[in-house]
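Researcher: Here's the sequence for the chain we discussed earlier.
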Amino acid sequence: MTVQQLIQQYNLQPHPEGGWYKESYKSIEHISADALPERFSGKRVFSTAIYFLLTQGNFSAFHRIKSDECWHFYAGDPLLVYVLQPNGTLHIVHLGNNIEKGQVFQYVVPANCWFASMPAPSSSFCFVGCTVAPGFDFVDFELANATALSALYPQHQNFITTLCR
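Model: Thanks. This is the structure I predict for it:
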């Protein structure tokens, strides 16, 4: 399996935060706005899922969304997911298939946390999936500004400037 095969097989397109993606599922049913927390501006589908591909030298820039996002490892090499908790704690998750090295197949990024990802230093490519509930909507997506995020979390400025566009 090669990067080009994955891009062609799944019809992956460039993602605004970096990497390649394709929506693989979007619920046809909706949750009404009055049944959702106030952070949502309108109705949302129950759930969405995407395929996501990153290659060495590329990264998914720091961003946040208003829903929980479950990451799933599928193929390739380990992916590092950087999650900034509201209290300033930086959690680095190793998504992969080597449980003896502490890698996990799934990880949930909590709603409203800033997060970014990049292939581990020895990784060629990482093919993963992301499932979001309530479903992803670009109106809930916020791409980080490195200066503003570094002002909030100065202790993590190196990671922030590396993983922002």
